[in-house]
Amino acid sequence: MHEMNIAVRTVELPPSASIAPLYPGSNLADAYAVDLPTAQARQMDMQSLARQLLGKQPGWARKLMVLRDAIVARFGIRTAKQMEARPGKRIGIFRIYAVSDDEIILGEDDSHLDFRLSVLRNRDAGRHGCVTVSSVVHCHNRVGRAYILLIRPFHKLIVRHSLARAARAGFA
Question: What is the pLDDT of residue 92?
Fold first, then answer.
């Protein structure tokens, strides 16, 4: 595939996302979008598209997750390995809540917060469509609010990097 300019954009929270009713009162809500690079990506099933997006993380992100796990385990928060081992359909650490033709809802509930991630495809935007990743977090307590405060910059960096990496690879 030839080199292309990948522009990940900060966008408004999409009102058409299934998680839109969760936006009010959230402790974190953000959305990022990238154009789909190929007609093939426009036609992929949403679980495959989400796996390409959330799949292989760079070494620096994996190291951050190891550090996160070492810290959060002391506060009774589930580690990545504990989340991956939970029953049900999953993509990595995230439970799959719902899948439709153009959206997949992932997330996790824990004692400190509830997290939802929408991967929403708009087939009519741009040449091949675009995909928007929206995140919503509702904290239950001080531990959750402190956690979000600490991870917010890393969350944004990882989401933006994941979108750019998946687009450069053609979501293939």
Answer: 78
Nearest to 151 by CA among 22, 6, 21, 30: 30
Q: How far apart are CA 78 and CA 86, in angstroms?
A: 10
Identify the pLDDT of residue 97: 95
Measured CA to CA, the distance from residue 165 to residue 129 in angstroms comes to: 17
User: How far does Cα 98 stand from its chain's mean position?
Assistant: 14
pLDDT in tens, 7-61: 999 999 999 999 999 999 999 999 999 999 888 888 899 999 998 888 777 677 6
Beta-strand relationship, 90-91 and 94-99? antiparallel
- The SS3 assignment for 137 reads strand
- Name the strands in the sheet holding 28-35, side by side, starting at the edge strand that comes first in the sequence: 9-10, 28-35, 130-139, 113-122, 103-109, 94-99, 90-91
Q: What is the pLDDT of residue 3?
A: 45
Q: How far is CA 146 from CA 32, 77, 123, in A?
A: 23, 12, 38
DSSP state of 23: -
